[in-house]
Amino acid sequence: MPNWQVHSDPFRALARNRNRMRRVANGAVSRDQRVIFSSMSKMTRTNHDGGGTSHAAGVSLLEILAALFVFSIGLLGSLKMYDVMLDKVRAMRENDIAVCALQNEMETLRAMPFEALAERTGAPFVSHTPDIEQLVQVLPTVDVRPYGQPALALKEVHISVRWRGDNGRVIEKTLSTLIGKKEAGPS
């Protein structure tokens, strides 16, 4: 390989250029060789943009640590968002189960004959909603009491579902309505 070619090992190439410059300084090289050696040494000392000297050819340990720090902060942030998202999805699912159970019980009570709606407080649900057992420490209750004058033939119905959510927090969903006596119309 001729002396003027760039070597694959940059440290070896820098060492050869230093040796050439020493020979040039000592006068052991001809004038033509001095011009070639000085232009080669300028090429190895300048940055890619042509200015200044380059002290490091690679990435420093500090830069690697900074990049790892930034990457780890991003990764931890995305994991935390994932955890929060799972909590929100669980809370929405619990809410959907409770609302479905409330609507199911309300429709069951509306379909019952008016005389079967006996006055009660804190009674269990009449209907069966299988998903409601997925809630933690669930307590479904029904309250039925007369409303207004007896001549109005109205009953106030109050339905609630209470359960424990995340961190032991008590959550309650309620639904209230009035149910009246249906008159038998012409058939």
Fold blueprint:
Elements: H1 10-26, H2 31-45, H3 61-111, E1 120-123, E2 136-147, E3 154-164, E4 170-180
Antiparallel strand pairs: 1-2, 2-3, 3-4
Describe the structure.
- The protein has 187 residues and is α+β, with helices and mostly antiparallel strands.
- It folds into two domains: 48 residues, no CATH class; 83 residues.
- Helices cover 44% and strands 20% of the residues.
- The protein has a four-stranded antiparallel sheet with strand order 1-2-3-4, covered by helices on one side.
- Strand 3 and strand 4 form a beta hairpin.
- Helix 1 packs antiparallel against helix 2.
- The longest helix is centred in the middle third of the chain and has 51 residues.
- The protein is rod-shaped.
Provide tags for this entry.
187 residues; alpha+beta
A few lines on this structure:
By secondary structure, the chain is of the alpha+beta class.
Strand order of the largest sheet: 1-2-3-4
Number of helix segments?
A: 3
Q: Roughly how many Å is the radius of gyration? A: 42 Å
First-last Cα distance: 111 Å
Low-confidence sequence ranges: none
Order of helices and strands: HHHEEEE
- The coarse overall form would be rod-shaped
SS-based structural class? Answer: alpha+beta
What is the overall pLDDT average? 81
Number of strands: 4
Strand content: 15-25%
Largest sheet: 4 strands, antiparallel
Quickly count the domains.
Answer: 2
Helix content: 40-55%
